[in-house]
């Protein structure tokens, strides 16, 4: 490596860490949880060719690697505090490293979160981040609390929808072609997801269950239903669809929105009477939310069309062992 391992860490990944007792440079970082808080901890790994394409701009890769991790904290209603970064690099490319660090730290600064340690090695490009967040005991949003009668909601970008990241992937795969503006919009959704941290915090004490959508809405909802021991109905006409996706055939819209993956939106359940509070939490977070269905006692997942008739679709979520590139 042109630049030595320790110089590289010093130059690109060492920042002041006033929130930590001890940051980068020792054998361990030291973190002091605030009084009365629990740590929420999550790890996500991004592998080239599996979770991102070699063509991605390094700034966007740095952003996405942290964003997918922050999305897990959001889904638990945890407040981000710190993270570690394990990095394998095929070579020392300073243009790449500068871009990566820029994308990573600009999102970190937005959320007031500090890089406190990591590991750096030569090898096939791979980024693995662990995030630490704090949450008061008993207040973490979990997958196992959905109750029959709850309303089912999903977040979405203001003026946008779910499924855009999958549409972008279909373009990269050569299955779909889009006008330039639509492509830029969906590519941004794929490469620069915005973790719904503020919404997750706003849903504490309100949501009975929550998950972030990384593998496709239906597949992720399935996790909530299984953990909670309930079923659900989705009113397909209520799904938020972006203008770009709305210009695609309806079957493509549903495939992307229901089984697309890589959205990093929050899918959550709340008591039926809490709709106004959900809208207020979303408005405060600057995020769109839509009620797309309800939880029922009978197990299984039913899709209804605008007339209330049951829809039978052959959709599937993302499978890391059969798809070439997909979500973290
Ligand atoms: P050790 O060999 O004791 O595990 P390393 O030599 O791997 O430590 O790392 C030296 C210091 O640099 C440690 O504090 C480690 O946490 C930090 N570090 C290594 N790689 C990174 C990175 N990519 N980002 C942030 N900190 C890192
Ligand atoms: Mg080490």
Which helices and strands, and how do they pair?
Elements: H1 5-13, E1 38-47, H2 58-76, E2 79-89, H3 94-110, E3 114-122, E4 126-135, E5 151-156, H4 164-172, H5 180-191, H6 197-202, E6 209-212, H7 217-228, E7 231-235, H8 243-246, H9 250-259, E8 266-270, H10 275-285, E9 288-296, E10 300-304, E11 310-311
Parallel strand pairs: 2-3, 7-10
Antiparallel strand pairs: 1-4, 2-4, 5-8, 5-9, 6-8, 7-9, 10-11
Helix pairs in contact: 2-3, 4-5
The chain binds adenosine-5'-diphosphate (ADP) and magnesium ion.
If you had to describe this structure to a student in words, what would you say it looks like?
This protein has 328 residues and is α+β, with helices and mostly antiparallel strands. Helices cover 33% and strands 23% of the residues. It is built from 10 helices and 11 strands. The strands form 2 sheets. Strands 6-8-5-9-7-10-11 form a 7-stranded mixed sheet, sandwiched between helices. A 4-stranded mixed sheet has the order 1-4-2-3. Helix 2 packs parallel to helix 3. The longest helix is centred in the N-terminal third of the chain and has 19 residues, at 58-76. The chain starts with a helix and ends in a 17-residue tail after the last strand. 45% of the residues are buried. It binds adenosine-5'-diphosphate and magnesium ion (MG). Adenosine-5'-diphosphate (ADP) is lined by residues 9, 13, 24-27, 85, 87, 115, 117-120.
């Amino acid at each position: 490596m042109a630049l030595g391992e320790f110089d590289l860490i010093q130059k690109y990944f060492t920042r002041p860490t006033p929130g930590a007792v001890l940051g980068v440079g020792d054998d361990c970082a030291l973190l002091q949880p605030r009084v009365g808080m629990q740590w929420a901890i999550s790890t996500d790994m991004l592998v080239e060719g599996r979770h991102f394409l070699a063509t991605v701009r390094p700034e966007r890769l740095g952003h996405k690697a942290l964003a997918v991790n922050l999305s897990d904290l959001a889904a638990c209603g945890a407040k981000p505090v710190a993270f570690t970064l394990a990095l394998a690099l095929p070579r020392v490319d300073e243009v790449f490293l500068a871009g990566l660090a820029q994308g990573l730290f600009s999102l970190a600064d937005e959320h007031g979160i500090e890089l406190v340690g990591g590991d750096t090695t030569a090898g096939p490009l791979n980024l693995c981040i662990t995030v630490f967040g704090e949450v008061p005991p008993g207040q973490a949003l979990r997958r196992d609390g959905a109750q029959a009668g709850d309303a089912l909601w999903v977040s979405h970008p203001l003026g946008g929808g779910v499924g855009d990241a999958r549409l972008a992937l279909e373009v990269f795969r050569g299955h779909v072609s889009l006008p330039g503006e639509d492509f830029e919009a969906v590519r941004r959704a794929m490469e620069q997801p915005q973790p719904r941290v503020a919404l997750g915090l706003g849903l504490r004490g309100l949501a009975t269950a929550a998950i972030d959508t990384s593998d496709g809405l239906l597949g992720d909802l399935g996790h909530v239903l299984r953990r909670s021991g309930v079923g659900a109905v989705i009113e397909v006409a209520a799904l938020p669809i972006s203008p770009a996706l709305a210009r695609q055939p309806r079957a493509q819209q549903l495939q992307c929105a229901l089984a697309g993956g890589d959205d990093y939106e929050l899918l959550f359940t709340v008591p039926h009477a809490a709709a106004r509070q959900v809208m207020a939490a979303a408005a405060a977070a600057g995020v769109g939310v839509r009620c797309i269905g309800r939880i029922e006692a009978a197990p299984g997942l039913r899709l209804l069309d605008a007339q209330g008739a049951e829809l039978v679709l052959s959709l599937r979520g993302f499978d890391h062992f059969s798809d070439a590139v997909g979500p973290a």
